[in-house]
Amino acid sequence: MYSSNQGYPRMGQDREWKRTLEQFWKKEMSEEEFSARMKKLKSIHVKKQADAGIHIVPAGDFTYYDQMLDTAFMFNLIPERHKSDHPLSLGSYFSMARGSDDAHACAMKKWFDTNYHYVVPEWEEDYEPRLNFNKPLEDYLEAKEAAECKPVIIGPYTFIILSKGCHSLKEAADKLLPLYIQCFRELKEHGAELVQVDEPAFVYEGLEEDLHVIFSIYEAFAEAVPDLKLLIQTYFEAPEAYEKLTALPVSGWGLDFTKGNTIELLKTHGFPKDKILAAGIVDGRNIWRTNGAAALDLLYFLIHEVQPADLHIQPSCSLIHVPETAEGEDGLPEGLLENLAFAQEKLEEVVTLVNAENADAREKILQWSTSSQPEAGPSSKSLRRAQSFSERTRLQQRVFRLPELPLTTIGSLPQTKEVRRNRKSFKDGTITKDQYERFIQEETKRWINIQEELGMDVLVHGEFERNDMVEYFGENLDGFAFTRKGWVQSYGSRGVKPPVIYDDVQWRGPITRDLTLYAQSLTEKPVKGMLTGPVTILNWSFAREDRFSESIAWSIAQALRKEVHALEEAGIRMIQIDEPAFREGLPLKASKQESYSRWAVNAFRASHYDVKAETQIHTHMCYSEFSEMLPVISEMDADVLSIEASKGGGELIRTFKDFQYDKSIGLGVYDIHSPRIPSVKEMEAVIRHCLEVLPAERFWINPDCGLKTRSEAEAVKSMENMAKAARIVRESLKQTV
Ligand SMILES: CN1c2c(nc(N)[nH]c2=O)NC[C@@H]1CNc1ccc(C(=O)N[C@@H](CCC(=O)N[C@@H](CCC(=O)N[C@@H](CCC(=O)O)C(=O)O)C(=O)O)C(=O)O)cc1
Ligand SMILES: N[C@@H](CCS)C(=O)O
Ligand SMILES: [Zn+2]
Fold first, then answer.
1. What is the pTM of this model?
2. Fewer CB within a 10 Å sphere, N or C end of the chain?
3. ipTM score here?
4. What is the Å distance from ligand 2's center to 186 Cα?
5. How far apart are CA 670 and CA 647, in angstroms?
6. pLDDT tens digits, 720-733
7. pLDDT tens column, 81-131
8. Cβ neighbours around 508 below 10 Å, total
9. What average pLDDT score do residues 675-701 get?
10. Could you tell me the distance, in angstroms and rounded to a whole number, from the CA of residue 496 to the centre of ligand 1?
11. Which of 426, 494, 704, 707 gets mutated to test ligand 1 (max ligand atoms within 8 A of its CB)?
């Protein structure tokens, strides 16, 4: 048996990777120094895995930004707008990721059901990809002296399925096939024996239709590089069409045994003889110790199915979804640390499992947490507002008297260095609570004035008091614990520190009321109260696994409802309950989606169902493909839903129209994740496209997410352009009346 890994966290224990990237972007470091530092970090990650005792260490998982972007760049899928005199320069690479003065960034989407965002590869018309360089090979050559390595690469099916702009799977596959073959040949020539080919898209239902293309791809690989062992890696669910798929001419399969019915599939259909099984036994998506007894049972079963020499034990997916190590996390509630396993601890578990024939190892395994099957907690109920949307909207229009195409923002305003430094000083005790709160108030006041000057119709307080939209609520509710360094990459250099839900969630008292009221006291215009919704708090935390998700979401909703009432009683009349993770939590298998949608909608509605008809409830979602989820989103019954519309907004709105979505829509007219400032014309065009589909009274105008990552100058200029665009359109609407 071998121990193996699929991918290592990139951030670095002290977020060295993030800091290196950001220093380079700020031009505080030369390209040579940047490359040298990144190379060093890459080798440290390889060494840490080898030192943990992992036999087969991945090479190629390290990136400067994102693995899908790397693959697109390697295959020369560089959109024309990002090409420069040196098309293979870091300038082009980061321009694709983050945009540049004259080129908008490539889109970002959630990676399956995770909070990690990948850069969406774009296929331009008639594009002919070519192999610019061989990234897995370069990383393999760098790593192979330090460890036994397995190059990893995103497989062609997944790469194409997650791309946009290609006409057909077949056509794109035909173009990519020779490039993959060249990659594989070069790897083989340089000594690689086994390559991990990530095909997580094999878990999607509907795969059957594509099986003939998938077969033709992998048959071509088998013919072209017969001596190289390809191991297809799937994760996050059991693969579809298991029996047919496992007949592919590859050397092995990586399967996730922590999700879906993978074990049943093997029990029913067996595992193909003489193939490698890379068994994902240690959950790569949570931070809990493995249930030792259950893992041993599974291991005994697998040993009977597969020759030990063909059995690799590994985490269920890449470890980029968990923090690097729990070592040093000594500020947690008593008894919690012993139950935690981050990446390093998970690798130790893998190594111990491989040694399970040794009695000491077995004893150790049996001491790991024995969390039982989840117990039922409170279950959700279907509660909803007493009045229909049309009744509510009539009353609300009388209260708010907003202009056509009302202008607003999504909540957060720039979290500048100064904001973060002040919070750090408060946490370190170098400034007092009073000083910190005064600073936050001053920043809020300054930005209320800026928003007034820019002509926003509905203002926000700016969320300056929040480290993160989930962590902050966790800190102010009972039942959550916080790590010091539990950072997980969210996109590019940005990280989140998901709180740990380890106990019953309870409301302690008003969280957002005072600052929202303070902001409201400074302006005649409405200020939106700003909350993170129950489903998002759940999905972006590491939740206990001895309760069903439905019960936890329901408890969070009960706590948030008290916050909603505290705001309403204080006179706040618009409340936004953000649910950006609502779509992301949707199970990957269609057959499991209905149950999730039911309890997720119930939790969202339970958080506010008994507010007054005049109280306007907003919600916001971002970076999601939710057109197929519109019936569910409509059931959430929010008065206003803000969504991304800057790319293909018109088409998206058409989907809303076709579905007869009847509530208001906030058009996210510009992409906030890029430092690029969109022009008035661009945003005007987006608004006009949407107006071709639905009338103006249905729309609000806003950015596509919060502005916390932007600098003050970028935020002000973009908001100014957005307001100009809205006013131009308003004027032309008046003239056509
Ligand atoms: C909306 N999004 C979110 C997602 N998930 C969340 N949990 N939260 C989200 O908001 N998923 C989808 C998207 C992803 N978007 C983002 C956007 C921005 C960030 C981000 O900016 N992350 C920050 C870290 C934020 C944070 O928690 N900050 C803390 C700690 C700050 C810190 O690092 N302090 C320094 C000292 C600072 C100084 O002296 O200048 C230190 O401790 O060393 C805080 O503000 O207090 C990031 O930097 O990556 C994430 C996801
Ligand atoms: N209100 C939050 C939503 C992010 S999804 C923000 O503006 O940052
Ligand atoms: Zn958002």
1. 0.96
2. C
3. 0.97
4. 45
5. 8
6. 999 999 999 999 99
7. 999 888 789 999 999 999 998 899 999 999 999 999 999 999 999 888 999
8. 10
9. 95
10. 6
11. 494
